[in-house]
Amino acid sequence: PPSLTLLGIESSCDDTGAALVTGQPGAARVLSSVVEGQAELHAAFGGVVPEIAARAHAERIDSCVARALEEAGITLAEVDAIAVTAGPGLIGGVLSGVMCAKGLAAATGKPLIGVNHLAGHALTPRLTDGAPFPYLMLLVSGGHCQFLLVHAPDRFTRLGGTIDDAPGEAFDKTARLLALPQPGGPSVERTARDGDAKRFRFPRPLLDRPGCDMSFSGLKTALLRERDALMQDNTLRAGDRADLCAGFQQAVVDVLREKTARALDLYLAEAPAQPMIAVAGGVAANGAIRAALTGLCAERGVAFTAPPLALCTDNAAMIAYAGLERFAAGETDDMTLAARPRWPL
Ligand code: KG4
Ligand code: ZN
Questions:
Q1: How many CB atoms lie within 10 A of CB 136?
Q2: How far is CA 188 from the centre of its chain?
Q3: Where does the Gcp-like domain start and stop, copy by copy (predicted)?
Q4: Which CATH class is domain 133-273?
Q5: ipTM of this complex
Q6: Could you tell me the residue ranges of all domains in the chain?
Q7: What is the pTM of this model?
Q8: How far apart are the CA of 80 and the centre of ligand 2, in A?
Q9: Is there a shared CATH topology between the 4-128+310-328 domain and the 133-273 domain?
Q10: Residues of the chain whose pLDDT is less than 70?
Q11: Residue 186 in contact with ligand 1 by CB distance below 6 A
């Protein structure tokens, strides 16, 4: 089969991305991947402000596409199709991306392909490792937390997920409660390094219940209680902060490890020929989480893969790749492609 080259566009949250990917399903590579974050625009508001995000995407998206083409050393004429995140996400941002992609498709006559952002994350191990179907994916980010059995590019079975907060959200809230910088994941992980994870006993929600569902919102309540007991003159000692971070992170690690073990049982019951677990989403950047899952997989004789950081967090290469899988299967969209705030897999 011929090699395909796709342009991908991502703008569903607070990262504007454009990327070029070339190859075939299960054997593709990234030619370029440009991501422009907006952290500094939202920092003062304690969260992503949809209107600010939408405006920033609209302003930056064309230059991201131009840079991605330049870095890949190709022109738009050499692209086979244009893939774009059509949801789920903040609707203003998704619209910016979809309108940009439609404009490029109309101007060049190239096929247009709408991609589900979650499918982009879930298919990333196919891009980075050529992961064979079916594989088990743990998708953990600021907005998402679910176990997916990935049977095919367009066929996913959800085994379970969070019933409240996503783990990234819990990391972000923890950082806010402890006056650490956003995004919370990296700062909490860094602070936890000097801490004693055993000093505080945080809950391990839902471990006593069967199944793969998880809950993380109770952790922040427990953390708030411990923090307030430690606060003196409205300040927290550095050692206390480190111990709180370490204890919190360990609770998240324990829950993810145990629930992954259960999801693994369900997956292995299907007797996959080459069993593999993959993680994706921003929280997959966490070293302690990666180490726990690596250990679990080694024990169970299952391959483990975690994409490089830049492909774990929001990016357009995963969108280009998911588009490549759709395009190779003969699927395209037309100019009626709609931006969807909600779009379950
Ligand atoms: O996938 P992502 O870039 O965006 C979406 O949420 O879709 O994930 C961002 C989330 C944030 O909540 C951030 O705090 C978390 O991923 N994160 C981490 C780490 N790095 C980023 N969480 C834990 N440990 C990390 N090292
Ligand atoms: Zn994402």
A1: 26
A2: 18
A3: 30-321
A4: alpha beta
A5: 0.97
A6: 4-128+310-328, 133-273
A7: 0.92
A8: 25
A9: yes
A10: none
A11: yes
